[in-house]
């Protein structure tokens, strides 16, 4: 349940739950769904239920046993704030994150309403980064929900970007990631949507990370925008493309470094 990750913006994944249900257009070609079915066909014990929401008690404490500090994408195969996840389970996931303070956790959700509802009861620390996914203008309300939470580091995953996002309110947002859809049936992403978001980030002084153009062959389209890579990170830190280096324990709670794979939620 814990694995090194190929996602461009993280180092490892931790999946105390797997499976989900679709909630908005960004879910149409859910990477987690495809992978879950593949792992089920391979006979992997954690995927006997395929993409049906499943809690994995045995995986809860894993980060506490990883002594080397890592940047960890939480629930790459699900959505922690899914309506069927018991609130007690969410608290337990946060309790582990709070205690495993030598790591950096990245939680990403599309269920921003439930996130906002539970936020006052969650132990927000600066090594727990909270993000919402937004695919088009209709779902920017998720950003407003995120802004109202007590999360110390707030980020946006604008992936798969399916339409323009004009006049984003980036107040209290620490980081923006943009990416096009990839794989079979990938929906196209217009260059002007990306450059406009980039301009908005520059104007607001918000770090911008361009993950990929996407398409059927994402390696061919690459991840350069205007001739360069955009790997900006919160707090002015940057990563090198495809190489995160190692994470050292931070003497403070402040995140100092973070890398980025294909992301869900
Ligand atoms: S994991 Fe994310 S992308 Fe997949 S169905 Fe759930 S919310 Fe949608």
What's the gist of this structure?
The chain has 265 residues and is α/β, with parallel strands linked by helices.
Topology:
Elements: E1 2-4, E2 12-14, E3 17-18, H1 31-41, E4 54-55, H2 62-65, E5 71-74, H3 87-99, E6 104-109, H4 112-118, E7 128-133, H5 141-147, E8 153-158, E9 175-179, H6 191-204, E10 208-212, H7 218-221, E11 224-225, E12 228-229
Parallel strand pairs: 2-5, 5-6, 6-7, 7-8, 8-9, 9-10
Antiparallel strand pairs: 1-2, 3-4, 11-12
Helix pairs in contact: 4-5
The protein binds iron/sulfur cluster.
Can you walk me through this structure?
The chain is of the alpha/beta class. The strands form three sheets. An eight-stranded mixed beta sheet has the order 1-2-5-6-7-8-9-10. A two-stranded antiparallel ribbon has the order 3-4. The protein has seven helices and twelve strands. Residues 236-261 have low confidence and may be disordered. The chain has one domain (2-239, 249-259). Helix content is 23%, strand content 17%. It binds iron/sulfur cluster. Residues 20, 22-23, 26-27, 30, 32-33, 78-79, 110, 264-265 line the site of iron/sulfur cluster. Iron/sulfur cluster binds at residues 20, 22-23, 26-27, 30, 32-33, 78-79, 110, 264-265.
> Oligomeric state of the chains?
single chain
Query: Which stretches of 5+ consecutive residues score pLDDT under 50?
Result: 236-261
| Individual helix count | 7
How many structural domains in the coordinates? 1
How many beta strands in the DSSP annotation? 12
Average pLDDT confidence is 89
How widely separated are the two ends?
Answer: 17 Å
Structural class: alpha/beta
Order of helices and strands: EEEHEHEHEHEHEEHEHEE
Shape: globular
Strand order of the largest sheet: 1-2-5-6-7-8-9-10
Helix content: 10-25%
Strand content: 15-25%
Bound molecules: iron/sulfur cluster
Cα gyration radius (Å): 17 Å
Q: Report the biggest beta sheet as strand number plus sense, adding barrel if it closes.
A: 8 strands, mixed
